[in-house]
Specification:
The protein is of the alpha+beta class and 404 residues long. The chain is built from eleven helices and ten strands. The protein has a four-stranded mixed sheet, covered by helices on one side. A four-stranded antiparallel sheet has the order 2-3-7-6, with no helix packed on it. A two-stranded antiparallel ribbon has the order 9-10. Helix 1 packs antiparallel against helix 2, helix 7 packs antiparallel against helix 8 and helix 7 packs antiparallel against helix 10. Bound molecules: flavin-adenine dinucleotide (FAD).
Length: 404
């Protein structure tokens, strides 16, 4: 029998996180704005530490709760309800992914220098891969270079849409270390730890975007003869893509987990509205067109939740997870947009107003189909894996979550 019972220790932490989000985060969310953001967040963080919920994703050695992918899936679905919640527990993008990457690939010295303050919540970081002048869905085109200079390196290039870059203490930068065209493109890039006060690291601007900006914005950055020592190289030379995948796989799932929280909140708002308002002599929810919108959102949300839990279980049990995470990335990003869109429709003019968070969810949801790989690129990978499974096993079952 497949047992969906949540282990008691995970149930406990999930329930405590849900209560924290309800009682501490949502209680203050309407009053938080740009004028009081820093102090409100500091206060929420102090409360999260006191509640024993700080760093759910990190091992105890790093001051965390040591939750694996499955535990984080359960917790993040609660946190997704408010953008402030992940920040309060110190497990927000891009820092959460960077912490995982540092844990996996950094030397002990690098961990002490970069992971420790990140885990303490005293600094922010960013991950710098995308470039404006090349289609960065295909990262083999990235142009930023790192040339060896004595023992150290000199980095040159331009990055953009680097979330959190303004004010980040350091960046993990993807740069080309082999310009020999005969070298396999996937082994030509390496990762470098670049400090925010390096004179060669220039924040050009925070790019205006349609959704929420978050601390540090989404920035255009220039690397101008940016000199770093030999200790700035993370992992081995040429491992940049392989290590980025270590970060991006679980990070994509973490986004999906949070999107489920957003979608759940949107559906709750829509359902409450549909049962509390009347039109043409009956509740909105009694009109079939509205009931079907609610039902479709319920169906999508259930499928998304199970998909995320299954992919998290594959990660945690050490199985191949690329296909499942790609499917999750596409499905959950798209269902988020649809559920929020239906919720706005059901709430009518109120849904379109700034009095509800739905219009913000709608703007933020649009980006979900683009960052960490556009839907089309994931679909391309999913289709290739279907073909591969068919060619090797005579069925696509293994590439569609087939259990046997
Ligand atoms: C809010 C936000 C935050 C971000 N944060 C970061 C960050 O912190 N660090 C970072 O490095 N990057 C970040 N990004 C960048 C993001 O990861 C890239 O935008 C994404 O990888 C796509 O690259 P691109 O924008 O260059 O699009 P392009 O590669 O130019 O692609 C444009 C479009 O072409 C289509 N397309 C591309 N390839 C294919 C294909 N094979 N088949 C079919 N269609 C295709 C898709 O529709 C795609 O949307 C962020 C982006 C956003 C929107």
């Amino acid at each position: 029998m497949i047992d969906f019972t949540i282990p008691p220790e995970l149930q406990d932490v999930r329930a405590r996180v849900a209560a924290f989000v309800r009682d501490e985060v949502l209680a203050v969310e309407p009053d938080v704005d740009s004028t009081n953001f820093d102090e409100s967040l500091a206060d929420l963080r102090a409360r999260a530490r006191k509640a024993g919920l700080w760093n759910p994703h990190l091992p105890p050695k790093w001051g965390g709760l040591g939750l694996g992918a499955l535990g984080m899936a359960l917790v993040s679905q609660e946190l997704g309800v408010s953008a402030l919640a992940s920040l309060a527990l110190n497990c927000m993008a891009p820092d959460e992914g960077n912490m995982h990457l540092l844990l996996h690939a950094a030397s002990e010295e690098q961990k002490a220098r970069y992971l420790r303050p990140l885990a303490d919540g005293s600094v922010r970081s960013c991950f710098a891969m995308t470039e404006r002048d090349v289609a960065s869905s295909d990262p083999t085109q990235l142009r930023t270079t790192a040339k060896q200079d004595g023992e150290g390196w000199v980095l040159n290039g331009e990055k953009w849409f680097i979330s959190g870059a303004n004010g980040a203490a350091f960046a993990i930068v993807v740069a080309m270390t082999e310009d020999d065209p005969d070298v396999d493109p996937r082994s030509r890039y390496s990762l470098f730890l670049v400090e925010g006060d390096n004179p060669g690291w220039e924040i050009v601007r925070e790019i205006p975007v349609m959704g929420t900006e978050g601390p540090g914005g989404h920035c255009e950055v220039r690397l101008n003869d940016c000199r770093v020592g030999p200790a700035a190289l993370m992992g081995r030379r040429g491992e940049g893509f392989a290590l980025s995948q270590v970060r991006l796989g679980p990070a994509r799932l973490a986004h999906a987990m949070r999107w489920i929280g957003v979608a759940q909140r949107a559906l709750d708002i829509a359902t409450q509205r549909a049962i509390s308002r009347e039109a043409f002599g009956k509740q909105l929810a009694r009109h079939e067109a509205v009931a079907w919108m609610l039902a479709d959102s319920g169906i999508d949300l259930y499928a998304a939740r199970l998909m995320v839990l299954h992919a998290a279980w594959k990660i945690e049990s050490g199985q191949q997870f690329k296909q499942e995470v790609a499917i999750v990335k596409v499905f959950v990003a798209e269902m988020l947009g649809q559920i929020v869109d239906r919720a706005i429709q059901i709430c009518g003019s109120l849904g379109y107003s700034g009095d509800l968070p739905l219009e913000r969810f709608y703007r933020d949801a649009r980006a979900a189909r683009i960052y960490d790989g556009p839907s089309e690129v994931h679909r391309m990978l999913i289709a290739r894996n279907l073909e591969k499974a068919m060619a090797t096993e005579g069925t696509t079952k293994a590439a569609t979550g087939g259990l046997a």
